[in-house]
Every structure is written in C-alpha cells, then in structure tokens.
C-alpha cells in the first residue's frame, strides 16, 4: 500500500529508485542490465519537472481509460437490480435518472481521458525533443574538446551515426516507450487490485501469468542486448563507408571504381541487414510467447470465474467487469514486445552516446590569459620529444628559437616532423617531454583559446565550408565589416577573381570549396588568416599545390603581411623560403642544420643537396 501511494505521489522518484534497485540486483555478465537506463535517467535530472508532469499525465490517462469496464458493470447492475442498484443506494431510485447520472459520469471520464491523453503525448514528445536536442549539442560540444588523436581512431561516419542516428533512436523511445511502460505498470496495479477486491478467489488466475511474462522479458533482454549493440556497430560502419565514398567521389570516378565501391557498400549494407535480421528473428517471437501466457489467464477466468458466478459467489455485474478488466490487464502486455524492442535499440544507442560523453578530455590548465595586442610572438622549443600513440618517436630532443617579428623556415624530407611541430605549437597534441614557450610563458599554462587565437594557420589542405566566399573569409572573424573583408581579399590577391564569380563575394563555393580551383581556395584561406590578423603566422606547405602564378601572388602577399610579424614557413619548395631570416633543416625528428640560405649552401650539407636537386644542378 505504501508503494502504491508513493508511486502516485512522485512517479519520477519512484522510477529512478526502481531503476537503481534493478541495476544493483540484476546483472548480465560484467554489464548491468539496466545500466544504460540509469545513465539516461542520470542525464535527464535537469528535466525532472517535465518528466514528473509527463508521468502524471500518463498515469491519470490510464486511470480514466480503465474506468469504462466499471461503468459497464454499473450499467449491468442497474439493469438487473433496478431500484436496488448501486446508484439507487445513493438515493436515486428512478431508473431513467440512474442511467442519466451514469451517462454524465461517463462523459466526464471520457473528456478527462482525452484531456490527459493530449497532455501526455504533448509532454512526452516535447521532452523527447528537448533531450535529443540538448544531448546532440552536449555530445557535439564534448566531441570538439577531444584531442585530434580521438578523431584518428574513430571514423567520421561512426561519429555522425552517434550524433544523428543514435540520438534519433533514443528520441523515438522517449516519445512513446516510457509512456507505454508506465501505463502497463499502472494497469497491473489498478486492475490487479480490483481483482483482489471484487473476486479474491479467482484473482490468482489473472496474476499467475505476470511473473512468467516478467521472466520472459528479462530473458529476452539478455539475448537481445548484444544483438542490438551489434546492429548499432554495423550501422556506424555503414555510415562511415557512405561518408568516405561521398567525400572521395572525385577519386572514385577518376579511377573508374564505381562498381568496386558498389560492392563494398553492398557488403557493409548486407552485414547491417544480417545483424538486424538476427535481432528481428528473436524479437518477433516475443509477442506470440506473451499471447500464450495471456491465454492461460483468460481461459482460467472464463472457467473459474464463470463457475463462481453460477454458484453465486460473484455477482453477474462483477463478472462482466472482470471479463473486460482481464483484457485491459493482459492484452496491453502484448505491446511489451514493440516497447521492449524500442527499449533495447534505445539502450544500445544510449550506451554509444554516453560513452562519447564520458570520453575523458585532456586536462588543460588554461590559467594564464593572453593579451593578444601585447603578444610579441617570440617562440622557443626547448628539448621537446613527441610520438603519436603506439608509434615510434617522431621528434626527439629538438630545440629551436624563433625571434619575434622574424620569418623562419623549416625544411626537410617527408616524415621528418615539420608539420608535427605546428600541431604541437597549436596544442592539437601535447608534448611527451620538454616545453614550448610563447613570450617566455610555457604554452601549457596559457588559455588554449587565446593561444590559438594569436596563431594564424594556412595549410596545404585548405578546408572551405559550404557557404559564400564572404562566409569563408570571415570564418573566425565573424563580426568583420564588408570593407575589412574586401581589404583582406585584396591583400591576398583574391579580389580580382572573386569579383569575376557569378555573385562576387556572395557566390556559394560548394562543399569543401569544390567550385573553386586549388589556387583560389588557397588565396581565400590566406585572406581568412589576414582578416584574423594574428601576431604569429604559420604557413604549412601553403604553396606546394598551386601553380607558379598563384605561388608568385602568394609570395607578394607574404612580403606585405609578414613585416614585423613572427612567421613560420614550412615548405618543400626551397625557392619560397630562400629569403627567410633563418632556416632550420630537420631529418628524422631532429634538427641537423640551421642558418641563412647562403650559409647553408656553403655548409654543403642536406640543404645544399636539396637545393641542387630542385635547381636542376643534380
């Protein structure tokens, strides 16, 4: 009785406590059966009030939904006993008035049932929308905080699957699944209690199948959980394949590999289909099993309840109520199959989303803020060493100094660690040993946002977003004025070709800037960096993939914007860095030579050899 009143006074707390009891009592191997459910409720604490209201509306709707069988029993009671009926005992002896009163009560109950049905549907759907919206944003925000190493280990398609498909799957369960569970639970309490009150001698017949149904549900959960986890994994692989193929469609077409990719996609899709079918074969057997158990209770009531009515132990009106109530009690349990199917799919998705949210973020101290206007750009790499995860060291005990306002170049063969230095400077990765200082301050102690704000990076692999030319130039400088955008484009020698585009600065560049040439994309990226106006400029192979005309244009731009600005140029083309204030030569993660262009040629070492090869001397 205490549980009964507690449930109706605070359904949210009741559900949470029941979930916690279940998670502590029932286990399946190393993972707890209801652990994903608990993770979801822990996340949903901020929606406690809305969830409480939705639970209340679901329960009240089911209470009024269960009233019609009782009204039928009262109607039968009036027809049989007339002046001695239940309503007559309240002082209304006229049969017509008894039916009118019963009709009025019926109208009120039906109106209230409809009102609370509207309420619970609106509340649950609103809750599902709120949770999926905020969960997607939280997951995406968390994803952006993770180190680049995480993205190297996880495919883009799999992450998109979590942010989109898994969260949508969870939304579908919240939309209707929890309401179905609540209403079934309410039905068992109310109808089961009514049987013990009206006909305690036959109540056991009705209750008998329920423990077996619960046992069957738990058994199916053990069998279905790993199958649905496999389904979610397979759909992630399928999405990954689709994402990779769409990104590489130019390569696929150029190598005439359409048939090959069709076969690979068919293989991934077939694996997903097989995984889904394995789960479906098992889940489809759930409802037929429940029907057989329901049949036992229904037949038992017909026989034992009918005999009790014939012998006078149960009134005819009561028996008619019981016949209707047993259907209300047992038949909704067949919906457990669909609800349970939704639950397992949702919990598999919940685990994937929560695992993403629980992925630890690297500890950034970020306790020193930078005044960007006061940054001079003096950099020093002090005895640094670094290796990517599970790989040999790529930089070993390297030290180099970059004076403020100077242009230095870093050259070397592919794989020597040049670009890794840039990633370490921007703290895309953290050092294994040593330190990097900016204006004498260890960058580990600097605000990560401020550090990256004072560095402008132009790389070989330019990424433009699907949007207008202006959108891409102002990326990161979102409040820039039109005049500032045009000035940055002119400095990057991009204004001329931009004005020849169909809509000028409002021309849409397409995904990854595919409507523009490589040189045009590079100059827009340079304009973007110029508009940012950082005290430190990093050019990572910025001219290696452009034609001679574009390279000359970029060189003219660099001569203007590198004045009194710390500039780091990483290049394979030595002609682009011959005028640098200082040149560092790297090989196998170590600094082997350094000096000006002329001095390095005199040393007749690695740099001189590279210069001779590129100049055609060798």
In short:
The chain is of the alpha/beta class and 618 residues long.
Account of the 3D structure:
The protein has helices at residues 2-9, 11-25, 35-43, 48-65, 67-81, 95-145, 148-153, 156-198, 203-207, 209-247, 249-254, 258-283, 286-310, 316-330, 336-357, 418-425, 448-453, 469-473, 482-491, 495-499, 518-532, 548-561, 597-603, 606-615; strands at residues 27-28, 31-32, 379-386, 395-402, 407-412, 433-438, 441-442, 455-459, 536-540, 566-570, 582-587, 590-595. It has 618 residues and is of the alpha/beta class. The chain has two domains: 15-357, ABC transporter type 1, transmembrane domain (ABC transporter transmembrane region fold), CATH 1.20.1560; 367-453 and 577-618, Rossmann fold. The strands form three sheets. It has a six-stranded mixed sheet, with helices on both faces. Helix 10 packs antiparallel against helix 13. The longest helix is centred in the first third of the chain and has 51 residues, at 95-145. The N and C termini lie far apart (95 Å). The model is unreliable at 1-32 (pLDDT under 50).
